[in-house]
Amino acid sequence: DNLSHSFSRLDQIESDLVTFNDRQSKTEYNLKQVTNTVNDTEEKSEKLEKEIMMYKEIIYETKQGLADLEEHLRVQRQFNMITNIRGHLIWKINHYSRKLKDAKESDVPLKSPIFSNKHYGYALRLDVHLNGIGTWKNRNLIACLTVVNGDFDTLLPWPCKLKADIILRDQPDDLNDAVDITKLVITKKRNDRLEYQNQFIHIPHQIVNSGNYIKNDSIIMEVKIQKTYEGVALRASTPKSTTPTII
């Protein structure tokens, strides 16, 4: 009986050993599978990280490209606003009667489109007070040429001084009969940040209302830059005053 029990016990042990070996084999197989899965996951993770970095670079390049494009469009829009880059502006002011009425209630000037004396030159603008200013108010049209801030001011020589003709164009049916009103003006600016004193021109309303200066409720102003003095010294005694010099 003892022997039979021993053999039975041995068979049981052998069976358990086989079962254990099977389990070990399956465990090793599963471990190998898990290891392969982990390795595969790590490989995929590294690949995914590389793809993420690539997409980040693409997004950055796209954002930078859009920012550059917006800047180019902004500059292009500014250039499109520049009526002329040869120091010559012709500006038609429509609805003169209404704008003169508005000017009598406000001292805000009309401002022309920006123009320039040359490619990438000084940014210029004609400012017009249809009803005058100060002691000249209610009797005169007052105008001045202003050097405004431009994108390329840091590349330009300062101070600057410009001599220009401001013209009120006559508009007769026969242009041979035209008698334009021309006034010489000098405008100065010390540097790319500091506004300098402007010289104003005046044209009496009595003259504006005569002849054919007003036609179809419109007047035409013209500016011709005669000469630009770049980087010349301006007189230190010239006052920085908001009181206009009117000629």
From TrEMBL:
Source species, domain of life: Eukaryota
Protein name, UniProt field: CLUMA_CG006496, isoform A
PROSITE patterns named in the record: MATH
UniProt keyword annotation of Coiled coil present: yes
Alphabetically ordered keywords of this record: Coiled coil
Domain MATH: 86-225
Coiled coil: 31-58
Gene3D superfamilies: Apoptosis, Tumor Necrosis Factor Receptor Associated Protein 2, Chain A
